[in-house]
Write a structure and sequence with these properties.
Elements lengths: L2 H30 L5 H13 L1 H20 L4 H30 L4 H33 L2 H12 L12 H13 L12
Helix pairs in contact: 1-2, 1-5, 1-6, 1-7, 2-3, 2-4, 3-4, 3-5, 3-6, 4-5
Length: about 190
């Protein structure tokens, strides 16, 4: 397995953890009447706003996808779908950002925020599934060592706030908080009653 493929999978796991954490917090508000922690919700939304669309997806679009198109043209349909999702993903993220702002100002906007998060989660589960189960295996089968050298260098420069070498303090704290709140199997928090 290439370094880049490992990094992509690690970044997907980090994003999945954040999404699961956000969904858990929404369930706690919805089902248990938990008071919303807007500082935590904003930190989560900042992560999803900053990392996937601004660092992760551009590296795939600039390095991995063109190399695979060249080496295995039959991947074009799946790559087109993923690149289209990369373009549409910003709008899905913006909806989460906007509905959180609305919810913070007006508690009656909770359902709109919860729906935006659900839409965001479903969008990313499908997207990550296609990348990991279709594109990465094709890339590992068809790309040359020279292709991987360039792709690996690009992805090694990523500084995902949760998994990268240049981890930012506030995102380390966010991840720590999420892991300690969320019950197993996604976190270390107490068993959910």
């Amino acid at each position: 397995m290439s370094i880049a493929a490992t990094i992509i999978r690690d970044e997907h796991r980090a994003l999945a953890s954040v999404i699961k954490g956000l969904q858990f917090l929404i369930q706690e508000i919805q089902n248990r009447g938990q008071k919303p922690d807007f500082a935590l919700l904003q930190a989560i939304v900042s992560y999803v706003e900053q990392f996937p669309d601004k660092l992760h997806h551009p590296k795939e679009d600039q390095y991995l996808f063109p190399a695979l198109r060249l080496r295995y043209p039959a991947s074009a349909t799946d790559l087109d779908i993923l690149q289209d999702e990369h373009e549409r993903g910003a709008a899905v993220t913006t909806r989460v950002v906007e509905t959180l702002r609305e919810y913070a100002a007006d508690p009656a906007r909770f359902e709109a925020f919860a729906q935006a998060v659900d839409d965001y989660a479903n969008f990313h589960w499908s997207h990550m599934h296609r990348e990991e189960n279709v594109i990465l295996p094709l890339a590992e089968a068809h790309l040359t060592p020279q292709d991987w050298t360039q792709i690996n260098a690009a992805f090694k420069s990523n500084s995902d706030p949760l998994v990268g070498i240049n981890t930012q303090r506030e995102f380390r704290e966010l991840f720590r908080r999420l892991v300690n709140i969320i019950p197993a199997p996604y976190g270390l928090g107490a068993e959910h009653r």
